Every structure is written in structure tokens, then in C-alpha cells.
Amino acid sequence: IVRKGKTQLHKWAERQVILCGTCLIVASVKDSLTGKMHILPLVGGKVEEVKRRQHCLMFSSAGSQAQTYFVNFDTLADYQRWHRQASKVVSQTVSLVDLSCYSLEAVPEYLFYSQDVTHLNLRHNFMSLQGPGGLLNLPRFSQLKSLNLSHNRLGVFPECTCEILTLTELNLSCNNLHTVPVQIGNLQSLQTLSLDGNHLSSLPEELGGLSQLNSLGLSFNNFSHIPAVLERLSAVDKLAMAGNRVKSLELCTLARMSHLKNIDLRLNGLHWLKSVSLETVSQVTQLDLRDNYLDSLDLSSVCNLETLHCQRNQLGTLTLSGFTLRMLHASSNRLTTVNIYPVPNQLTHMDLSQNLLEYLPDWVCDCRKIEMLDVMHNLLSELPSRLLNSLSLRKLLAGNNRLQRVSDLLDHIPLEALDLQHNRLAELPESLFYKALNLKYLNVSANALESIPPSSPSEESLSTLQELYLTGNNLNENCGALLVGHQNLRVLHIAYNQLLSFPASKLSKLELLEELNLSGNKLKTIPSTVSSCKRLHTLIAHSNHITVFPEILNLPEIKLVDLSCNELTEIQLPDSLPATLQELDLTGNNSLMLEHKTLNLFSHITTLKLDQKSTTTAGDSQSASPPWNHSYSEMSGQRNKLCVSVLAVDRFGDGVEACYGIFDGDRNEEVPRLLQCTMGDVLCEELQHSSIDNVYMCNTFLTSHRKLGMAGQKLGASALLCYIHHEPSDPGGYFSLTVANVGTCQAVLCRDGRPIPLSKVYSLESCTEEMERVKLSKAIITEDNKVSGVTCCSRLLGCSYLSPWVLPKPWVHTKPLCSQDEFLILGNRALFERVSYQEAVCTVQAVRDPRAAAKKLCSLAQSYGCKDNIEAAVVSLHIAEDSCTCEPPVSTTEPRGPPPAPVPVTVTPGPSDPATLSSSSGIVSEFNSETSASEVGSEAGSTASDEHPSSVPASRPERRCSLHPATTLCLFQRQPSCATFSSNHSDNGLDSDDEAPLEGVISNGSKLEVEVDIHCCAFQLRSGAPESPKDLDLEKRGSDYPNGKMRRQNSVVVSATNGCLLAVCGREIADLKKSPSTCSLFGKKLSNGSVVAPEDSHNLIEVALEAPKKKSGYFTAPAQQDPEDQLIVPPSLEQEVREQLRGQKWLAIIDQNKPDLKWDTSCVKTCQQHFPLLGKQAI
To answer: Is the Cytoplasm keyword given for this protein (predicted)?
Structure first.
């Protein structure tokens, strides 16, 4: 209801009111389409509450002839929303309208009444030229200065924009433009013109008349040479032509354009850049030649060059002028030397990493102002003494070389960071710490050090060292006394050395210590004086011989404690635990027994990892034992959230098969978690329809990408999936490993001690083909080699809004396995950036135990400088020459070797007080949302963990292979999975009120096991062989391929899932899904409008997307399926059900000519008539 004016002369009337841009638009009549509109400019005006009337606002314009409107709203919500938005408008000084990413086809009609609009953003829409709100109407904005029409797929240059003479900024990037009209010369006020990401190959001469134009973007077009019209644009100082087709360039061309100072020719495919004359190029100060094909570069004629970027070329020689050079970036080339004359006395930063330098040029030591020098990954055998004693050098990175010694320091130096990891150093300079008093970071990991220098020649130390990394040396416990002087130490990594103990009195002096890593030593105890380190938040001490739990649970800031792979027997706990404790890992302590009281104290810990006692009985010993076992480890680094997850299933499908996966979301945790929970099910379903590796793997990735729904629109993740199986043509033959990946997760196979990469890294820097594909699709690649500045990966699951530049199609590769294959390593980008393939293989070979090996890989990556999330999984392979994995039963009187490690379970309690465990027939109904990626997959188990692992040699089952299988008692089995459970329910199976055993919780001493089907057994249903020729004939006719062989053709599996009846019987259901009229019956429509196919299990993705988000950002896992809803057809009825499915024509019920068929009561009755054995509940 609206009233005009402050007096009572005007009456209240019902009118349409629009707040558009910076104006209030009020219709003059009730039917707003027939009358004129009153425009009230609000910039500089007032918006006030009217206290005499409920939900009423007063809008007043500015100026001496100000007008006023009173607007009364129906609801409080509308009133508050209008008040909030209008208050922002009246306070504006610039009229800015942002309508980007609204899928608009036209400008809203009412916006044209806002004559004070000066900035209009229409980026990422579908704007059309014609129509009432088409682009042809844009000249109606008489004061428009800035117009952004990028990413609108226009196809042609909108000439109407050349009529807006007030424009100073015009952005038409990524619009498939092929030409620029001559009318562009009308825009004499234009200062910025962005034409990046189009198909332009020439520019009109009229463009040269724009005297005020100072910024012209021509990147990622089709120019084969620098346009001559640029010579006339004297105000333009930057040539932005990255991603074009300039194959060669003469420097004299740049000399003619004396106004150009900054040249960007990245990603052009440049093969040569030469000076054919003696003419100097004096105006160019910044030159970017990254990611080209230059094999030599002579820029000595560019006499005033200040900054040069030439990374990722093929340079063997580099010659520069040093008069004004300040920054040189030349990493990832083949340089053996760098010639700069004269000595660059202005040089401050130089990056020569990843080259072939065997020595540093003499002029490097003569640079007076050099502050940062990076020469990592070269062939250097020594560092000049003059360089180390430089009075300007503050950061020196010389890791991954061949250094055998470091020269002594002669005087005090300002060095602040020194990285010497992965060299051959046996000692450090004696005077290092008391001559480099500003040294705050030192990394000497992976050397051969036996001692470290003292912090001071006397008892008094002035050391400012804060981070010290000593991992992977030969240090003993004597080094502890030498660390005392570094009292400012915050991070200490001394893992994988020869420490037998750590001096208690020395540890108490490190009061500022925040992170301590003592893993991989021979420690039996951690000194009690660790309690003096009040700021300690991370203690990692896995893979030792620790028997007594350290006194760290009284530290006020402790967050993470990792004591896995030790010899703990009991834990002495205080009365209460610190609220800051988020993660506690106690796996691999085979003798550890936890009491009921202890588990209650652990109830608030977000991630608790414990060993799980095996439930294997003598009756289970006949089952096949897989010829592999696995474990994994993950570290969150400096981030507060874990954005990686793992899928690991040792028993996958019907036969002896396995499935492993790694997912890395970079900065998001939602997408990796969704993929972890569902990708195994998707793979299992796709295997029902195809036995061709490229087909089922591609379909698995594409289906998982589609099913991410809204979560995958702006978020994405790298994904790696490994599937171990027999070839379908020879089910009893050799094993094969099929690997598929997108993004930067990688898999490495160790064969005869040599690493064999199995995956393809889909990053723009490492994959030339992908870089060319992305360039051809006219994506904008930023200077850090990211697509639209978002991701360095060209293939991901998710990030749908970056299509077609970022695709979900995976690389697929199948490799036969043999007896020489020892293990498989899976890792994310952060792992293999720091740990090479060969080092990773040698590390696992030295450790052998998969859990300890995975832990060591992560610890090494952290000690080598990684700050991101790290994920490593190790799969140990035991494959005989003929793929027979049988072994004779172990004698009960003479056990062979130590018992295998128990399978751990990750306990993730909620943040609240312990609550009663809700269970239904042994199925955990809910998971806690405050979890890490290790929640759904156990540390040495799997996402759907091994069903019956054994930990007692006497009851160890006889391992059988697919060539000699054990006797199977029934066709269909429902295998319970032991998986993650919440420790606020971990009270030994007893409710705190009545102490009665809870159904579904199996008590075993003080350990707990909870039966839970994370994947609802979609890939654990065992199907038997056909019992008759009829059955065999039915399976062959249900195959999609002429040979009649279909991977895991289930006999009959009827599942009541989400209210739908699914009959998995081969071709029938596949044809129904392909039919446009019936595919909707096999999917659930999401809130975003997409339809996804249901699984035989719970479709966790749809439920997770619909569930409300909690503060942590994790989704709430849905209640698991009741066992009564999963129908297992007994062998005696299997044949009859088959005949009914075939004879009664399932296709007749879901008729392709009835797309509007609904699952109503009549349909249920019809199904009952056709399936009398199933019953109403199943239908």
C-alpha cells in the first residue's frame, strides 16, 4: 500500500513498487502495465521507519524539490528486507547495478527508468540483441560509463554499444567474437577495452583513433602477429596477448611501439624471439614468456628490462642485460648456465629451480641486493662461500641437489630461511646458528647428518629459530641437548632418525613448542616434561616402541595426538580432557585395551581412531581371503579442515576383487566426502552394464559428476579410482588393475622395485594436450596457470560452471598384474609434489607394513615443507605367478609369524554429551557430521570395511583364490560391514541408563564393533553360478554384448530403495533407463531439477544435498536401510522369481508409452498381481 507526500491529502492506494538499481519505481495505476511509472531517485536521499504505522517505510529523494513516498508492507520479513536494501542504496555515491550470473536474456524493463546508472554488470548471462530489454536498448542509459557483457555467447560484436558515447570501460570477453566493427572509433572516451577469449585475428584501423585508450586486452584470441594498429595507441602501455598464435617475434617490432612497457606473450607457442638488428629496445621493462617452446633466449638488447618470466620453456642458454634487472624467474628449463652482463646490482629475486645447473655463475656472488635465491632441483655439488656470507641474502633454497658440505660462515649474516633438504650433507657449519642470528627456518631433512651444531658457543643463546626440520637423518639422542638453545622453536620435526630417548630436562626448555614430530625412531617413552610445552597443539610419534601414554592430555591447546604403530598397553587419563582435542590415533597398538571409563572420556573427540577386534569365527574361515591388504593415512596440514578422503574396499563385488579411490577437494570438503560415500556403488552399478574398462570407468565418473548436483556446480575435486579384477574373458586367469583419474591424484605401482606411474596428471602445467584443448575452447588462463583463476586442473568432478574448459571425463588405463608387483601407492597432489615416485617406492619397501608405510609417506611430505592436506594409501599385493592365491591352513599349534594387525575403526563422536545409540536390526541409523575424511573409511579397513578380518593365528582362515574357491553355502549373502561409529555411543554396548545391551553392538572385551552398511551392500551381494541351462540362457540373453558375457550379472536382486522396486536382471533395466519415457521412474528428482538414477543402496548424495547444513559444513549421513527392506531371494525360490520376471513381462508394467505413470495404489496392486511372492511391503 502506497501514499504519496507527507501530508494527509493523498490517500493510501494499492500500487506496484519496485526497488530497481538506485531508484524507487511506483506505478501510477493499479494495473502497472497500462499507466506511467513514477521514478524516485534514492541516491543521497533518506529511508526512515514510520513508527505510527506498522511495517511502514518513508522514501525521500535528495534535493530541494525532494519527493516522498510512504510504503506499507504486508509482512515483517518484507519490511526488513526492503529497509535493509534501501538503506544501502541511499548511502551509495556511485550508481552500480550488478546483474551477473542471473541467466538473463534481457535487461529488466524497469531498470531503464534509473537514469543515474553508471556501472552495469551483465556478465555470465544469455543476453540477446532484440526484444524490449535487449542490448539494442542499452543506449537509453545516458550516463553509463562501465559495461560488462563478458561470457554471454553473443557471437557478434554488439554495435549498439558503440552508440553509448559516455563509455569509459567495455568488457566483451568470451563472446565468440570474430570481428570488431569500425564503429568502435565512436567511443572517444573509452579507456579500457577487454576482448579476451574470442576468435579475433585482426583489428580495424579505426581503433587507433581512441586516444584515451590505455588498456587493451587481446589474450586468448587467434592473432598470429602483433596488430599494427597498436603503434597508434600511444596511451596503451601493456601488450596483453597471452594465449594467441604468435610463433615468432622480432624485437625490432617492439622497438617501433615505444609506448609498450609490459609485454605478455604467455602460451603463444613461441619458437624463437630474436633481434635481427643492433637496435636496442629501451622501453620494455617487464616481459612474460612463460609456457612457450623457446630453446635459447638472448635479450641483451632489452637494456632496461626489470622483470623476466620465462618458466616452463626448453631454454638451454639465457643471456640478459643486467643494468636494471630486478627479478628473474627461469625455473623448469634446461639451463646449464645463465649469462648476465653487467653484474645485476639491482637484482633482488632469482628463481633457477628445476634446471641442469652444476655450478652457480660467479656474478651471483657479486649481486649486492639479492634477497631470495631458489636453486632447488639442480645438479649443484657446492655453494660458493661468498654466497653464504652475502650481506643481503635472506632466503636460500638449495634442496634436492648434490651438496656434500656447506662452507663455514665468516661473519654475521641476515639469512632468515635456509632449505638444504635432499642433499648429501654429513654435517652443518659449526657456526651456523650463532652467526645466522636471524635464521627462523631451517630444513635439512633427507641428508646424512649425525649431529647438529650448537646454538651458541656459550650457555647464553640468541637464536631466533622457529621451524626446524631434521627428518630422515642419522641423529641420535645426543642432539636433544643441542636443541635447548633454540628457545623460540615452534615446529620441530625429528622423525625417522635413531633416537632411543629424548632428554627430559631438555624438552622442558622448549616452552614455545607448538608442533612436535618424533615418528619413526626407537623411543620407548616420551618424557613427562612434555607437559611443560603449554602451547603444544600437535604431537606425532607413530612408529616407535612407546609403551606408556605420554602426559599430554592436560595441555590446554592440544589438538592432534598420533601414537599409532606403537606398543601401548593402557592409558592413564586425567579426570577430564581438554576441549581442544580433535583427533586421537591409537591404531596399530595391538595390546592396547580400553576400559569403559576411557571410552566415555573420549566421547567429545571429533576423530578417534582405534583398532577393532576381529569378529572372524571358525565358520568363516572357509571364505576367500583377498590377495591384498591396505591402509591409508591423511594429514590436514595448516588448514582447519580435511579436504581429502579415501575409498578402500578389499572385498568388492562377487569374486576376488578390490576397489580403492582417492579424492582431493583442494579447499572444499563436501565433494570428496560425497564421492567417498557413493562412487563405489556407482562403479558396481556400471559394471552390471558393461565389461569394457573404458566404458564402465568413464560412465562411473560421468554419473558421479552428474549426481553431485548443486554441490558440484561451483565445487570440484580430483578423483582417482583403482579396480582390481579378473578379465571378463578369463574369470579364473590373471588379475588386472584398471585405473581412472581426473585432476592431480596419482597411482604408482611398484614392480621389481621400480615405480610405474599408472595415472595421468591433468594439470595445465604438466599436460600440454590439455593446455591446448583449454586454449582452443577460449578459456581465460591466469598468470598462475589456473582456469579462470579457479583451478589448475583441466579435468575434475564438479566445477560444472567451468564447462567446457574443465571436464569430468577420466583417463583410463588397464595393466595386468603379475607376481613381481609388490604394492600400489595412491596419493594426492600434495604428496607427490614433495615425495618422488622412486622415494615413495623405497619408503614403502623399507617399511612393508601398509599402515606404517602410509604414515611415513605423509610425515615425509610434511617434513619436506608441505602445508596442504596430504593423503596416502598403500595396497600390499600378494599375487602368485598363476594368480592363485591359495595357501595351506596355518597350524593351530605352531603359528607362523606375528599375528596380523587388527583392523582399526575410526570413531567420530559428536560435540555434545553421550547419547543413546539408535539402532535398527544392527544398522547404525545416523553418522555424526563433525567428521574427518577417515570417518567413513577405516584406517586399515575400507569404506565398507573387510567383513571378517582375523587377528588370531589359530583361527586364521585358509586363503582361497578364485581358481580354487571355498564351498559357498548360499547364493545370496548379506555381509555386515564394520565401519565408523560415533564414540558418544561407545559405551561397550550398554546404555548408561539401564545397562542393557544394545542391539547391533557387538561387545568384545573393551573394544567395540558396530555393524553398519555404508554402501548398503550394493557391491557385496554374492551371486551364484546358474543352476540350470535355462538360467544360463537367461543371463546370456540379458547381456549387452554378443558374447553373452556380462560382468557380475546378478541372478535376481530385488531391493526396496526409496520406495522404488528395482529388478536387476540385465538388459531390461538398462533399456528402461535409456528410454525417455521411463527413465524418470528410475530416478529421484532433486530440488535443482536434475534427475539422478537411484542405487541399489541408499543414494547418499541426494539425501545429503537435501539435508540441512551444520556449522562445520559437513553433511549429515542418512539413516541406513533396514535389513528387512533388503530382500534376499532364497535359492529355492530363485527359479520361480526368474520365471515370473520373464513370463509376466516386466516391461508391460512400465510401458514406454506411459511417461506419466505414477506409483499410486493401483500400480502397487498391479505389481502384487505380477509378483505374488514379493508382498506389498517390498513393492
So the answer is: yes
| Long-range CB pairs of 1062-1065, under 8 A, 24+ apart, other chains included | 1062/1094, 1062/1096, 1063/1141, 1063/1146, 1064/688, 1064/1096, 1065/1034, 1065/1038, 1065/1138, 1065/1141, 1065/1146
Hey, which bits of 113-178 come out as E strands? 119-121, 146-148, 169-171
Comparing CA positions, the residue from 499, 514, 504 lying closest to residue 484 is 504
Give, in order, the Cα–Cα distances in Å from 272 to each of 227, 258, 268, 355.
19, 22, 11, 20
- Residues 813-832 have a mean pLDDT of 94
126 compared with 641, residue with greater pLDDT = 126
Distance, C-alpha 1155 to centroid of its chain: 39
Q: What is the number of H-type helices and E-type strands within the chain?
A: 21, 56
C-alpha cell at 133: 530489454
Pairing of strands 17-20, 307-309: unpaired
- Cell representation of residue 823: 604394492
Least confident of 5-9, 487-491, 697-701, 1151-1155: 1151-1155
Cα angle 212, 217, 220 (rounded to 5 degrees) comes to 165
The verdict on pTM exceeding 0.90 is: no
Per-residue pLDDT tens over the stretch 1073-1112: 443 333 433 333 333 333 333 333 334 443 334 433 333 3
What's phi and psi for 1061, nearest 5 deg?
-100, 120
Residue where the block lists cell 559357498: 968
Half-sphere exposure of 890 (CA within 13 A, CB side): 18
If one counts every other C-beta atom within 10 angstroms of the C-beta of residue 93, the result is 7
Helix residue ranges per DSSP H, 888-1005: none
Burial class (CB in 10 A: 0-12, 13-18, 19+), 14: exposed
DSSP bridge pairs for 659: 649, 723
Please tell me the distance from the alpha carbon of residue 676 to that of residue 931, in angstroms, as a whole number. 13
Cβ neighbors of 1137 (< 8 A, separation 6 or more) are 1052, 1054, 1129, 1171, 1173
Element (H, E) at 286: strand 286-288
